[in-house]
Records
---
Amino acid sequence: MTAWLLFYGGIGSVSGKGVIQLDSRFRRCVHEGVLIDTLSEMADSVWAPTSGSVVAAATATSRHSAVVRLTHWITTLCFLALLVSGVEILISHPRFYWGEAGNVLTAPLFKLPIPASRATVPTGYGYVLPDQNGWSRYLHFQAAWLAVLTGLLYLVFGLLSGHFRQNLFPARADLSWRALATIIARHLSFRSASEAEAGSYNVLQRLTYLFVIFVLFPLVIWTGLAMSPAIASAFPAAVTVLGGQQSARTIHFFVSIFLLLFLLVHVGMVSLAGFRNRMRAMITGSPATTKEPR
């Protein structure tokens, strides 16, 4: 309806009998054989988007999809819950072994110089900490399963949507030693990324995220399940290949340390790159910029 009103108002008028009366401009255009060109120009003036609208549409593109943002924050909460509960579980027996069995009568592979929450565990301290082993184990298991389900959702989404291919898998040209050295040098000099670089991950970030997603997270889940007596009974090979349940516990501890280090470095790099911009991008999906808002 709007297009016809523009048509009537631009090249003619409607009589009381509903007949279109063409004005002199339109008749002249027909006479000169330029009707098509005139209509085309008028349509372009009405419908063609301006350059500002194109830029606005491009700027409105989300930096992170809704699924990526949702799984990111659920995983963050789960990891914090696993970290707190894991420390409490660790305090109950801060000694590590290698093999299938290990107890206070067994020589440890190494031990942490902290007091325990159980008097039967020799630590060298003359006191014990409050035993929080009950709620911490319950929270640890619940958070672990929620993290596993969230990880599966992220994995399926990444494969079906092309998220891994587009945002995480580096290009072959970026895997050269020269390209890696350039990125590392820039990080060590604490130089801010350019406007173009701020819109995507560099090769070092991509390789790090791939290592965390496809190596560290599966390994921490595997070693965690291997400590379960039920899993050890149902799938003994999954425990044997790790060297035993105590070996799985030791590996689980070191993988957790690596994940904690990744979290600290990740938060530090986000702060250096612009904490408010990066947080807004991960919460709302709006594109991150190289300059912090004032």
---
Amino acid sequence: MNIRLEEKKDWREVENLTREAFWNVYKPGCLEHYVLNRYRSNPDFIPELDYVMEEDGKIIGHVMFSKAEIVLDDGTKFPSWTFGPISIHPDYKRKGYGLKLLQYALDKARGMGIGLICMEGNIDFYRHAGFDLASKIKIHYHAEPRESDVPYFLAQELIPGYWSGREGTYCPPAGYFVADTDPAGFEAYEATFPAKVKSFQPGQLPQFCQSCGMPLTKNEDCGTNADGSINYDYCKYCYADGHFLQEMTMDQMIEHCAQFVDEVNGRSSESHSSSLEDGRVVTDEGKANKNMPKPMTRDEYKQMMYGFFPMLKRWRNK
């Protein structure tokens, strides 16, 4: 086994590796290979921490790191870092390669003076590399209520005392959302790879309509593209035949979804559904938040959505 810095000649091979590693793992299809492709020219990219792992002369793993920041409660910005995608070829998964690659890269990061890593991931794996819930050290996730212990938002202080008891809120760097901000670029890039079938799989992260937040759990929940194929970004009530079914602002969508605050709080005795004037029916929005620490008022729910909705594909950068 050998770990070395990535070279330009590796780029396409590593992007294909990343695509194979992430396809249908966290969502139908994947975006991570495009994130990597675009990130290499991003000023937040750290080339000194861009590593590949080889076995018998074959690249089987890759990890990259990025600059990030935390907004402290007084409004000042505090430097932090993140990493990912981290990819291991499917033939080599669950054999310890990913942990070895990550631990190697974290040691190198520590040696460069990088003091704090924040990231989203599965704590059952990343705890073995020293990560824990970020909420335990008062780092909050931008898209979740401040008081929540977000199970997928993790942090590790690489240099003891670097964070030093501060409190603030983290948002992933904008470079990780490039497929949302440049969908045409992503589609053109994806078309350069052999076709693969997208599908819902057990164990994927919860998927939500990128317009209204409705949970997407099966093909029948999804909208359709102009050619009739499934669109995994939007629900069938928001999107069909390649276009949105209603013209509305983000504020109007939030106002509509706020009707379901009772269901979010788990107080409703029957299933809510509601129709817009054109007949669109929306059900189950917000069910993922039923386990809130305390019931929310309508205004509190709207405030939470104002933190979440700007990250949805339809509303990003609007």
---
Amino acid sequence: MHDDRRLGNKNNGGMTVSNPENTDVNRDELPFVAPCRNLSPLAPFRWLGRGMKDLMQAPQQSLTYGVVVAALIGIVCLLAWFRGSQWFMFSMIGGFVFLAPLTCIGLYAISAQLERGQQPLLARSLRAAFKRHFGNEMVFALALLIIFLVWARAAVMVTSVLYPSIGEPTIGDWVVYLGFGSLVGAVFAAVTFSASAFSLPMIMHRDVDSVTAIVTSINAVLRNKWTMAVWLTIIVVSLLIGIATAFVGLIVIIPVIGYAAWHGYLETIDASDFPRHTIGITAVRRDDAAEEDQSPATSSTQ
């Protein structure tokens, strides 16, 4: 309720207008990290509720997005299964955990349009997501790709050294292999999740660089460990359910998770010190009703 009220931008018939207020911003005086709020461990369920509300307000756009993403995931996994191996398919599913944040960028734009009383258009969302902020998003994508490649290399090394392929493996051999492999994967997943939980929504919302967004995200995750553990559990369980339903469940799950992530960012991060984008969807301030709805239940903290 504190940042968007000060801005004079207006929503002109659902079309985004430019924001001239950023012209005098001295970027050398901007903070290195945006402050975050202390969250209740139950906060992610509130985000899910808002995500479901966005899905109901924009069902056609949401389900279209969900069908495309679910189809891509299904095609990649099927190719890995039939052209590679089961282990390769599981690796690709694991890789999706690293690259999943990039698939939700367009969903953030849909939520942003709904908050501003605009008609949610998929074309406008994709343009805002992949054209307006392309540079910062590619820097972030490169960072995720590097983490994924290092993780993939680590997984190959673990398999080549610990996989019980000689003789008759015992239960102990499998426990060592699966336990160590899971530990390595969990470390990389935790790093990726911490860096991506709020960074892409922040890049979408405010005119910030990728480094500031990533550091802000890591800081917020570390200060809300239990809440983010609940959120990560919800994401993983939801994705497993989606995959277990032959990827059909992902058609609904992907949009809801994407919308919930956007609302989680708005509730967690106080980005009011950073300039608004000069053009695009988020150059317009949110509606007062949306401001009230996103008001956090807990106080703000550095």
---
Amino acid sequence: MSRTALPRTLMAAAVLLGLVSTGFASIALVKRPHDFPWHRAEIPKSHATNQYSTVRSDHLALLIANANYPDADAPLPEVAAGADLLANVLHSHGFVVEVVRDATHAGITEAVNRLKAEARPGAVVLVYFGGFGVQSRGQNYIIPVDAKIWEERDIRRDGVNVEEVLSVLSQSGARERIALLDASRRNPYERRFRDYSHGLAPIGEDANSIVISSRSPEQVSENAGTLPNRFVNGLAAEISPSSLPVEEILAAKAAVSAGDRREQEHSEVPVASNVNS
């Protein structure tokens, strides 16, 4: 072999060895996709966590947790904690759960439309709203974080009507619609045009809907902005140890609550009125 041929042979061998090594490395990377940094990424809690596109289920839940209102004096930590707890409890009972935090009007509307689109005929759909709620003309509105409310008519413009949300979900063919309203709090909006917080108005239920509120109609919570979330904790305590379907547990609870309200209405014990906001 000539002196010039030897270096060329060695160079070719080195190139071939490099290609083989690169091929093995590529195979190793394909077998271990978790080595890529984006496979370990976590979705921040401030973003919506949408599982509808990857998991199919006949039990779907949308949890809207508005804990940070620009117009409020302080955050609502019990709302964030309540949504986390409820998400875990529902997931353990077979629900596919989406959590939307600090939702704008558009964000709430889009989330409800996603839920409607994913709900199959015969499904059970559950919506939880934690934050501020205000009634106007006998209708209840959940307040988005971007609401600009100075007069009562602004509620109907910027709020999201609870009854309309239930109506929209009924169009999906769901056999059971559940609304959990954690929204009866003193809020920074009503004080601008009312002498006191009115709480939420009664919501009419049909045979296929369940509505449970953290407070009785026309009442507000006195411990807003404090932990724990007694409303959600109470629900979790009933759901977690039970082997019954969640909808059966909540239907029984709603029936008991309705009975308690009727008994209170017919009793001679006066109901304490709200104080000024």
